TrEMBL record:
It comes from the Bacteria. Residues 27-159 form the DinB-like domain. This is DinB family protein. It comes from Bacillus tequilensis. InterPro entries: DinB-like, DinB/YfiT-like. It holds the Pfam family DinB_2.
């Protein structure tokens, strides 16, 4: 039976939200688990879509920013340096530097999930109501953690579309 795991070492609502993030992270890893390097960097038939690698990099980039918002209600400068910008010069999702392999991209994302877990251990039910700066507006900590799970799941749909296209005509892109 599918269910979200409620941990005894976190506040109940915090645990529920973290569990949703963790579940989607595991699902994402499962979806991409057997991708070749060529499939990982495949951008669709017309080469105009974001590749799975770009999407994995983007999810990690967005999530680490949420972790820091929740941690300190600010995103330190070093995060931009380590994870890079949210978009490239043309406003698109940036390519991960040096075309890392699947294992490295998943390792980076798991690191961020582990960072979130560490923060969630410290959060109380009351903390979930705290406002955070977000895109020139505010959001609660509760909404931020929910958004991490939702955003991950949203891009899983894009990855599934790329996988279907790859199966249909990707063999010609295999190196």
């Amino acid at each position: 039976m599918k269910d979200l795991f409620i941990r005894n070492d976190m506040a109940p609502t915090v645990s529920l939200l973290y569990s949703a993030v963790e579940e989607n992270s595991l699902r994402l890893a499962s979806i991409v688990s057997h991708m070749t390097h060529s499939e990982l960097y495949y951008k669709g038939r017309c080469q105009t879509k974001n590749s799975t690698a770009q999407l994995l990099h983007h999810i990690t980039n967005v999530d680490i920013r949420w972790v820091w918002r929740i941690k300190e209600n600010r995103i330190p400068d070093h995060i931009e340096q380590v994870y890079g910008p949210m978009s490239d010069e043309s406003g698109r999702l940036p390519e991960p530097e040096n075309q890392p392999g699947l294992d490295e991209l998943l390792k980076r994302h798991q690191h961020v999930v582990n960072e979130l877990k560490s923060v969630c251990y410290t959060l109380t039910e009351h903390d979930l109501h705290q406002p955070l700066s977000y895109d020139g507006d505010t959001a609660t900590v509760r909404w931020g953690i929910w958004h991490m799970a939702d955003h991950n799941r949203y891009h899983q749909a894009h990855i599934e579309v790329l996988k279907k296209e790859w199966k249909h005509d990707g063999a010609k892109y295999e190196c």
